[in-house]
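Colleagues,

Please find the record for the two-part complex below.
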Amino acid sequence: MKTLPKVDVAIVGGGWTGLLMSKELGARTGLKVAVLERGQPRNRTAYVNGMDELDYAIRLRMMQDTSRETVTFRHSSSDRALPLRQWGSFLPGEGAGGAGEHWQGETPRFFPHIFEMRKRLTERYGAAKLPEGCAIQDWGIRYEELEPYYTRAEHLLGISGLGGADPFEGHRSADFPTPPMKLNHISVLFSDAARALGYHPCPLPSANLSTTFRNPDGVIRPACEYCGFCERFGCMVGAKAQPSNVLLPVIAKQKRVELRTGANVRRIVHKDGKATGVTYFDATGTEFFQPADLVVLSSWTLNNTRLLLLSKIGGPYNPATAQGQVGRNLTHQVMGSVQLLFDKPLNRFMGAGASGVMIGDLDADNFDHGPLDFIGGARVIASSSGARPIANFGAVSSSVTATWGSEWKREAIASFDRIAGIGAIGEHPSYRANYMDLDPRYRDQFGDPLLRMTIDYTDNERKLAAYVSGKLAEIGRKMGASEVLLPDPLGRYDVVRYKGTHIQGGTIMGANPETSALNPWLQHWQMSNLFILGASAMPQNPSGNPTLTLLALTMRTADALVGKYFKHPGPLA
Amino acid sequence: MKRRRFLTLSATALGGTLIYRLDRGFSVAHAQSSGKIRVPLRFFDEGQALIVAAAAARIFPTDESGPGASEAGVVIYIDRQLASPYGRDRHRYVQEPFEDGVPEQGYQGKTTPREVYRNGIASLGAGFDRLKPEQQDAQLRKIEDGYFFSLLRQHTIEGMFCDPMHGGNADLIGWQLIGYPGPYMSWAQDIDKHNGVALRPKPQSLAQVLGHKTTPWEDES
């Protein structure tokens, strides 16, 4: 193993959070920063030829290669875990920019309730309201502390939206930097119907960009073209905010920041309770030791957890005793979307990942759960993200039972542009029984154990999904749908159907070192020169898309590093 | 050396321009009306290709509601996919042990798409392509709950509606059929208009939109 010259900061993973941290440190300190990213380099023009549904959205060309590394999954600790042999329920990205390249670009702020969910639910309904085995806990920070960073993150990305339109949103110190996106027909139908039913529709906060925008770093991006190729694609024109078009152009000019691609980090090396650097393989299979004074782990939820376990940092979580910090509170999402069949064409091929309308009325604790037998809510959206034909062809009225042959073909052609969905993305509370550890049987390309996910839904989520689907059906009928296709009742967690890539937990933040891995500054409680960025810090899964919150948390940590830590290295809490 | 293999088709069997009549019937116009074309095969032999083509044509038939898998060249698409790294599970996690799990754990089979097709074609039997359509449907119904059929159905949809650089959707016939315009660079002037009224611009392939060809993933590596 070759030992490299020491750097001040080694950052593991070149996605949104790792690159944002490197940009902040590059701009505000003279520190030597190395970002180690295992995938390929990218730039602003990486996607001009990429509008191909088959290669990108079906064969998943931008995602991590499962032949080299995947995760295993089982429902409970008494089951046998098997590997995800291909991706299904979530899509980890790879390469510079990570999953931030192929995202939709929805950027809600989390409601104030989210950060103090346990406290507020207990105060309002009593502790008995929480489902059995529930492990939700508070973040250790309040919305008000994060608000200035939400504003900064919105201005970094140029978020499009309408300030004050969502009555459930927390206080905002500034309006959105750009106006809301244009809306297509289905979003307008939804908006009108929802308002008529007493809900509060508002434009989706969007990183797709409604107009040309210059951010505080001087980075200029053009307006969205509504081509319909956002999620699973990089943006062809650079309108959708991606690390490759927001952060890399700035980092490229920072002489003290180096982005090292093809660098696959295997361990965080530590001695006497302090991180001393990381080891990694480069693309040729040569192993290096990169010494560093400070290590920032920002390699996405699952890999953040896995690297801590492989590096033997912190106590692995034990579901039998609920002791241990690393791997706890694994959550994903709860889907309750409905499909609506109309008797008119919808031109659904047009769209943008985050152009649409949402209501917060059925989300979080924005409605009274007193008479209900579940906790949590769902983010409800009608969007027009662009319906591509391979993924969307085949849905038919429930009166048609055939799935192939002449009748199915005729009906599927007729329905192709007349079906639209209302999405419901539900909260997933954390539970004692849902967690991550290392798999005893399956290994990656280097022979290291894969991460094992143990996760299932409970009746709480099943009741939530059924409740919200029922409300969506009412809205759908009000929209004029000729038929509402309800989803199958929520059964057990599966890794087959896509639910969004918002897997969370594993290295959660909190106020108590017994039950969290990170303090509210995303600093490891015991190893003070290790910071961990990303959704692995979230103690439970809010319904909202996490990216904006991750960016805000990263900026807050960057402020703490620059303002306090580098002056006096040590615990910040 | 491996002998090159071909699928021989009449020039009017593939693609064409779909024209709807006022009575909602349709016809397909071709620039060339006679002669044969020979499509080089990368994975199947001609007998296998004819069986897969026949099965795909029952999943997505050519009938009164329009052209189907035959006109789109679905079998050519599938042949290229199976010949590519995808066909040999190049990007799939294939470490042992392979064990059966619960459905929520996803497909755990060891067989590659190539092997699934070889076995599936054999299960349909030589001469499947020469059976009557009702007999073919009866055969397919026997296997419709199996993995081969689900893969064939998915690949048929892919071959109907993929960009034509992948070998299917010949002359954009699949996109013409459903009114999908292809990867236009901008709908910024249209996104908030045409409410409830069909907007159906002439479909364009990615190469037409870009003005140059791009390499499909199956032709790399």
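The mean pLDDT of chain A is 97.

Comments are welcome before we finalize the supplementary table.
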